[in-house]
Write the structure tokens for this entry.
Amino acid sequence: MNETTKTLYFVMVAVVVATLAVVIDPSKSTPDVFDDVGEPFFAEFTDPQAPRAIEVIDYDEATATATPLKVEFTDGKWVIPSHYGYPADAEERLATTAAALMELRKDRIVSDSVQDHARYAVVDPLDQGTASLAGRGKRVKILDGDGNALADFIVGDEVDGRRGYRYLRVPGQNRTYEVKTDADVSAQFQDWIETDLLKVSPFDLRRIQINRYTINERLGRIENRQQVLLTKSESKWQMQGREPDTDATGELTRALSDLRIVDVQPKPQGLSADLKARSGMQPTMANFRSLQGKGFFPNPYTGQILSNEGELLVESKDGLLYTLRFGEIARGGSEPSSDSEESEGEGERRYLMISVDFSEARAEKYEGDAEKGKELGDELSSRFAEWYYVISGADFAKLRPSRSDLS
């Protein structure tokens, strides 16, 4: 037998063995003879500026629900269609994610078996053909301006003993890989938006008025009234002539500066237009139903809005007055809480309505920057007019300290 005949013989044997492997174990879509280790996952994805949308679908085993989030560039701005088109702060984050995905390589093959997908948590979260709720991963899809997929993959568990490595699978393929990646693709709404909601520093705060009360809707009256006033002079806070607890006031001012939203709902178009125009709210049934459904109760005669759980009035040195109104519990989800008894009950999310007003006299009083305050006030008024915000139960608790908490 000459060398050519030998070579052909061995090739034929390899093909037969590979074919038998597929026949015997049909779950193996790609026999090991075709080893793609070291190859890029998405070879044609070479421009980090090409993405114009990202879709992330996470899965919650506790509720057996897939949670989608989509961020896309439309009409010259980044928005989140899955959250009513709320403005996204996504350009830099998406470019960083894209650059990390372009470098993604197939480091090690761990399995070609469908039966192993749950083991590595790379089951497609949208897979209707799999009965098991366990082992579903996070599906990530990066799209260009024409809607074509630049990258599409399912991220699974972290690899035990290998920091920075995760299991990964391409949808429609059986093979699971072990991959080193720094790509941080979040499915959390709050990770894709402007994090500085009030745009105020603790050092800029000058006056905080806490109006604690509750609305008894059944009897139509205000109950449990308590008012606390904090004023700042020469870098020190005062509470009705004495110095409040430093740690408590520090937690309150940090909570205002670091306030983050976990969800949003749009206000009715007519209501948001009224608030933007600052001409007063029109007493329409649609406006009343919308506000009351979130725990806010307008007085049609005075224009005052009472809130289910009170309000917070905050003045800054640049002449801004923020009014934070705390409404009903927001249904449809909760923030994870720790196992400690102290955090029990902090998972209830709460509706928050914010308004802001600028006064040149206020800026003068506090020796602030009136021009800066007016510009920021116009920007925030326009933004706040459109949305009901949802905050975590933990933030809600920090923003409503009682007089005894501050003493």
Residues 202-406 form one domain. The longest strand covers residues 320-334. The radius of gyration is 28 Å. The chain has two domains: 24-192, 202-406.
